[in-house]
Amino acid sequence: MRLRIEHETRYCYDAPVAYGLQQVRLRPKDTRGQSVLDWKISIEGGAPELHYEDHNGNAVDLIGIERGATETAIRCVGLVENTNNDGVLGKHRGFLPLWHFRRSSDLTKAGEGVRELVGKLADADIGDVSTGHRLSEAILDAVGYEGGNTHSGTTAEEAIAGGTGVCQDHAHIFCSAARLMGLPARYVSGYLMMNDRVEQDASHAWAEAFFEGLGWVGFDISNGYSPDERYIRIATGIDFREAAPVSGMRMGGSNEGVLVSLRVEQ
Questions:
Q1: CB atoms < 10 A from the CB of 99, how many?
Q2: Which of 46, 154, 179, 232 has its CA 20 to 30 A from that of 187?
Q3: Hey, how many other C-beta atoms are within 10 angstroms of the C-beta on 37?
Q4: How many CB atoms lie within 10 A of CB 193?
Q5: pLDDT higher than threshold 90 for residue 252
Q6: Model confidence pLDDT, tens digit, residues 75-111
Q7: How far is the C-alpha of 10 from the C-alpha of 18, rounded, in Å?
Q8: Is 247 exposed, middle or buried (0-12, 13-18, 19+ CB in 10 A)?
């Protein structure tokens, strides 16, 4: 399956920006089942400063915001060809050892809520991939999909306590619970081609866990299945902050508005 992506994020500032930098993680890489045929990033109101690969192996563009800018925009247009591997990425690669993905973070620290979820799977075999699917089901039962009640800084425990969340929250809870069970786990950001629409409100997020003998396997908790050929994998990290599509800092223009335009189609 070939997928075409058009994605623009436009920032509008209430005052001219004196200085700003943005880390942009919006370049997919070739992985098992995913081949990048064409991908271009263009910038308005800024300019590329540096391109590098971070400690997670993500392709990162460092963008300098134009001095005095009141608007900036990041636009991606690309073509990716995918095959279905039932979410299996295979063996571990990259700079980081597997034990790194067993550690916690501020967004994924396990508390009472996560421990209660894991307690329901006390009979699970952590070497069996079915454990990942059981965990996904338990998370979706406990935290229904509903937007507007969480934000980018919501922790796994806060989402469980609130009882609702979005794909980012589900992925954080999965990572937290999987690590508590002894499984390496990581957060994934990317795109999903939906069957009922081309225009979308936002990019997507899911999680991956590592199973001996099988390797990394993806789990889209919000949709209840493993990623297939409709998914485009962009960046990974210990949590959202390490895999965020855009992050950065600026001086001046203290308040901003964000407009997102996204199309994913076959």
A1: 8
A2: 46
A3: 12
A4: 22
A5: no
A6: 999 999 999 999 999 999 998 999 999 999 999 999 9
A7: 18
A8: middle
CA angle 33, 195, 79 (to 5 degrees): 45
Domains present along the chain, CATH in parentheses = 2-82+245-265 (2.60.40.2250), 88-243 (3.10.620.30)
| Unique residue bearing structure tokens 């999680």 | 207
Give the tens place of pLDDT for each residue, 15-41.
999 999 999 999 999 999 999 999 999
- pLDDT score for 196: 85
Whether residue 20 contacts residue 246, with contact meaning beta carbons closer than 8 Å, is answered with no
Coil, strand, or helix at residue 87?
Answer: coil
Pair 4, 232: CB distance under 8 Å: no
Q: State the amino acid at position 146 in one-letter form.
A: E
Q: What is the pTM of this model?
A: 0.96
* Locus of tokens 């009922």: 196
Q: Characterize 49-83 residue by residue with b for buried, 16 or more Cβ atoms within 10 angstroms of its Cβ, and e for exposed.
A: eeeeeeebebbbbebbbbeebbbbbbbbebebebe
Tokens of 142: 């406990």
